[in-house]
Amino acid sequence: MENHNNVTEFILLGLLMNKEMKTVCFFIFFTCYLAIFLGNFIIFITITNSHLIQQPMYYFLCHLSFMDPCFTSTIVPRLISDLLASKKTISYNCCMTQLFTSHLVGGVEIFILVLMAFDRYVAICKPLHYMIIVNRKRCNMLILLAWVVAFWHSVAQLLIILRLPFCGPNQIDHYMCDSKPLLKLACTDTHVASILVIANTGMVVLATFLVLVASYIIILYHLRNHSSEGRRKALSTCASHVMVVALFFVPCISIYIPPPSSLNNDKEFSVFYTVIAPMLNPLIYTLRNAEMKNAMRKVWFRELNSLLK
Fold first, then answer.
1. CA–CA gap between residue 148 and residue 142 (Å, rounded)
2. What is the pTM of this model?
3. Do 122 and 60 meet the contact criterion of CB atoms below 8 Å apart?
4. Per-residue confidence in pLDDT tens, the chain, 309 aa
5. Angle (deg, nearest 10), helices 19-48 and 76-84
């Protein structure tokens, strides 16, 4: 497969052009990156060292708290370093690697959010069969399926871009290597490639989002027969998930559904799902969850006592 590339490296224009703002943003994004690691690490350790790991919802949340730092680590370290760097180049191979890994890990995150919605649906709509339907073996199979589907999605995304020739401009108007900004640099007609990107990423994100919305409509319909206390508890856990879904999916849809030629704020919207959502996930899932807060107190007090002895 020959693509006649003259370009061996790309220049990332980054998020900002203003020099004074870059220094401020460096500290902001560096703090956010540390917060993502710290918050998700606390959730991961709390769940794995408590009884919560036995519950499917927290088992999926444990996986999500592991994937969040992995996902941001494919993008944010370069964003941070480029804010202070004078030369913001990335080799062609590194660019393609970032494209593949970000879509792989991001895809796994998307499917884990779907699995969490499936868990809530079964728990509320089929409570008597909950432990049979969402048993540990099935949970592991679903997680494996998420990785397999995300892998083939990423392979398809990478192949679309690898087939394009890059022979002229090499400035990517973004802080990361992604399909849409790369399509704008290809020195060939990208009409078919644009449709494939929208079909592969845009429609997958949109379809997944619609499935999630449909599942919560069904959940709300079933909750009408529950007691007020049962409704309150169910809605509390679902509300956390809806907030996470909105933070992740709404920016993704606004980026990947419109064609690459359209004028939009892709860079700004990308910050929501690459930085803000992974940083807020731990807060959303802990501040609104009494069970999680109780487990955190027990686990971390136990760890603190063992260190002091």
1. 10
2. 0.88
3. no
4. 445 567 788 888 887 667 778 888 889 999 999 999 999 998 999 999 888 899 998 999 999 999 999 999 999 999 998 888 877 888 999 999 999 999 999 999 999 989 988 888 888 888 888 889 999 999 999 999 999 999 999 999 999 999 888 887 888 888 889 888 888 888 888 888 888 888 888 888 888 888 888 888 888 888 777 777 767 766 776 777 788 888 888 888 888 887 766 556 678 888 888 898 888 888 887 776 778 888 888 887 776 776 666
5. 150
